[in-house]
């Protein structure tokens, strides 16, 4: 079984379409989204329509949570809040009702899917967890493999007989060990913070027991133009155009 795990599309239709084109060429059986389908970008309604069109199951991201929970929205910085308010105006009632159905986590194909930190936390960054806390969390998880988003970074955490190892994921297939537990941080389709103008996602092959990070080029200039035209804070357009990821590190929510 080959599963595509996508995350943090953030209303970037160009990036999402490029990823779906890539997926269509790779014998993928199913696709799961880790949330943050909306926010930052210019086309939230089109993203929600396409998730339904492609039958992609999504969990709840913190940007969806902020749409549903005005107290949580207050924790956003002013730029992210403005971007989300513009996104909300672009969403139909039908799309908002769909967003309200999203769940904090999903277990499918023996794997766990959650936006922030397992087992079910939407808005905690995995990189903010202490080593010991991560060991405790992973030890308690029933699933051997958990996929998380939220950080917009590609990282793998492996627990090997109580020892935690962390590694940045590069552009090559990686064989996993059946004796270990893993948390795989899948990067971002629409607002990458550690790549170079490419949409990133992961393919999980349960037969080969491998993960394969994908880096997909797309028309980021057009996506950035749309952000500017929508009146969304320009920094989210600049991130897409940024060649070296320098701006990306400054923006964490
Ligand atoms: Fe995000």
What report would you give on this structure?
32% of the residues lie in helices and 24% in strands. With 253 residues, it is α/β, with parallel strands linked by helices. The chain has one domain: Purple Acid Phosphatase, chain A, domain 2 (4-Layer Sandwich), CATH 3.60.21.10. A hairpin with a 2-residue loop joins strand 4 (105-108) and strand 5. Helix 8 (220-229) packs antiparallel against helix 9 (235-241). The structure holds fe (ii) ion. Fe (ii) ion binds next to loops.
What is bound: which ligands? fe (ii) ion
Neighbour order of strands in the largest sheet: 3-2-1-11-12-9
**What do we call the CATH homologous superfamily?**
Metallo-dependent phosphatases
Q: What would CATH call the class?
A: Alpha Beta
Estimated radius of gyration: 17 Å
- How many DSSP E strands? 12
Helix content range? 25-40%
Which second-level CATH architecture applies? Answer: 4-Layer Sandwich
**Total helix count?**
9
User: Mean of residue pLDDT?
Assistant: 94
CATH third-tier fold name:
Purple Acid Phosphatase, chain A, domain 2
* Strand percentage: 15-25%
Describe the global form: globular
Q: Work out the oligomeric state of the chains in this entry.
A: single chain
Q: What structural class do the secondary elements suggest?
A: alpha/beta
User: Could you spell the SSE succession in H and E letters?
Assistant: EHEHEHHHHEEHEEEEEEEHH
Number of self-contained structural domains: 1
Give start-end ranges of low-pLDDT stretches. 245-253
End-to-end Cα distance, whole Å, is: 33 Å
Summarize the main sheet. 6 strands, mixed
């Amino acid at each position: 079984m080959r599963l595509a795990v996508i995350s943090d599309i953030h209303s970037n239709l160009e990036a999402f379409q490029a990823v779906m084109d890539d997926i269509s060429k790779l014998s993928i059986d199913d696709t799961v989204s880790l949330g943050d389908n909306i926010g930052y970008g210019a086309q939230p309604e089109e993203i929600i329509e396409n998730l339904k069109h492609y039958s992609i199951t999504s969990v709840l991201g913190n940007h969806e949570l902020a749409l549903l929970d005005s107290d949580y929205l207050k924790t956003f910085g002013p730029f992210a809040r403005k971007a989300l308010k513009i996104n909300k105006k672009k969403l139909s009632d039908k799309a908002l009702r769909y967003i309200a159905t999203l769940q904090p986590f999903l277990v499918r194909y023996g794997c766990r899917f959650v936006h922030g930190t397992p087992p079910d936390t939407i808005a905690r960054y995995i990189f903010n967890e202490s080593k010991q806390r991560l060991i405790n969390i992973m030890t308690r998880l029933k699933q051997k493999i958990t996929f998380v988003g939220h950080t917009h970074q590609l990282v793998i955490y492996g627990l090997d007989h109580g020892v935690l190892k962390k590694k940045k994921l590069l552009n090559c297939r990686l064989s996993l060990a059946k004796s270990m537990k893993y948390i795989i941080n899948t990067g971002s389709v629409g607002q990458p913070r550690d790549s170079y103008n490419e949409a990133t996602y992961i393919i999980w092959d349960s037969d080969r027991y491998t993960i394969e990070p994908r880096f997909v080029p797309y028309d980021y200039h057009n996506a950035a133009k749309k952000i500017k035209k929508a009146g969304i804070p320009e920094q989210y357009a600049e991130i897409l155009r940024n060649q070296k990821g320098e701006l990306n590190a400054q923006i964490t929510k």
